[in-house]
Amino acid sequence: MKTALITGITGQDGSFLAEFLLDRGYKVFGLARRESWMRANNASHLADRITVLFGDMSEGIDIATALQEAKPDEIYNLASQSRPGESWARAPETLMINGMGAIRLFEAVRHAFPKARVYHASSSEMFGGAKTIPQSEETPFHPANPYAAAKVYAHHMVRICRESYGLFISSGILFNHESERRPLHFVTQKIAYGAACAALGITNSLDLNERGQPIVSGGRLALGNLDIARDWGHAIDFVRAMWLMLQHEKPDDFVVGTGKLHTLRDLCRAAYGRVGLNWEDHVVSDPGLVRPLETGQTLADPSKARKILGWEPTISFEEMVGKMVDTQIERLEPQIRR
Ligand code: NAP
């Protein structure tokens, strides 16, 4: 039986990956911050099937102890301050977790478990304002926010540790992937939530946005720049790519994305369309919500992952958005019955 350690087990990807590995007979350990594990989280339903180790990526001793406890064959480093927008306000903390946390982990692996295989979560945000579309493993990085800059640092450290110490560390340059488990502060989930509210006739939502106001107010969902275009896939497909990287004979970097570009308008159309509504009657663009420096058009060229790993996405954009809207309706329905 193989053993895996997942950092960021309470997150979207961590929880899907844990399910994926359990289905394949792995013994799964997860690193989680104590206070996060104590409240309901994405992996709560797995509590009796996994071993949770408490720790923080900003503490080297926590990482080293987790490795000693788990003695993993495979390590998936998913823990991160994962909100690019939020990273403007929390730049030092973002670097501490996403950059320093990663190198602490790599160092601990080098000293204690040099034979372990490590997956590291890089991000398409590293391409930022890249001039080349689509982006592949060869496209130069041009990070446009503190989150992306910290990810670039860790990404380079992956290669340096590979080349200097011969460690098996692979980076997944993953493009946006969403799911029913995305937190409400991500724009994709806000749109799914907005569509669900509209379908249920909720004009002033109980859930609040970053500004402490109802996400849906006066029957309207306020968003920033609607022309933003991204390559969005479903997280279930993307955790499979992580695992495939560690089954490959040698460590490497792989771009993972659907290769299809959609704008926020497309996302709104799909979400409100799911419940038979016209998004333009329910969504407004608010200039106050536009980021200081917006990441440009990120579109994956996943040919290398297709060719070498045999990876293909299986869940379409429309299916993904549909699942998200349906889940929000299920979540909100009890509220309107009260
Ligand atoms: P997520 O849902 O936000 O999960 C992030 C995880 O990191 C959570 O479990 C969080 O735990 C944990 N974490 C944050 N700070 C920590 C700390 N100081 N110590 C220990 N754990 C900490 O993110 P995700 O969507 O699953 O993404 C997984 C990884 O892929 C991240 O590294 C993200 O940056 C990267 N990525 C994601 C996407 C995407 O579209 N989803 C795209 C490219 C790359 P708490 O519950 O305690 O907050």
From TrEMBL:
Q: Which Pfam families match?
A: GDP_Man_Dehyd
Give the record's family classification: Belongs to the NAD(P)-dependent epimerase/dehydratase family. GDP-mannose 4,6-dehydratase subfamily.
EC number(s) given by UniProt: 4.2.1.47
Q: Which residues form a coiled coil?
A: none
Task: Identify a single GO molecular function assigned to this protein.
Answer: GDP-mannose 4,6-dehydratase activity
Q: What is the lineage of its organism?
A: Bacteria, Pseudomonadati, Pseudomonadota, Betaproteobacteria, Burkholderiales
Highest taxon of the source? Bacteria
Give start and end of each NAD(P)-binding domain.
5-324
Instruction: Please give the Gene3D superfamilies that the UniProt record associates with this protein.
Output: NAD(P)-binding Rossmann-like Domain (3.40.50.720), UDP-galactose 4-epimerase, domain 1 (3.90.25.10)
Protein name per the record: GDP-mannose 4,6-dehydratase
- State the reactions this protein catalyses: GDP-alpha-D-mannose = GDP-4-dehydro-alpha-D-rhamnose + H2O
Alphabetically list the UniProt keywords: Lyase
Query: Per the UniProt entry, what are the Gene Ontology biological process annotations, in alphabetical order?
Result: 'de novo' GDP-L-fucose biosynthetic process
- Give the function comment from the record: Catalyzes the conversion of GDP-D-mannose to GDP-4-dehydro-6-deoxy-D-mannose.
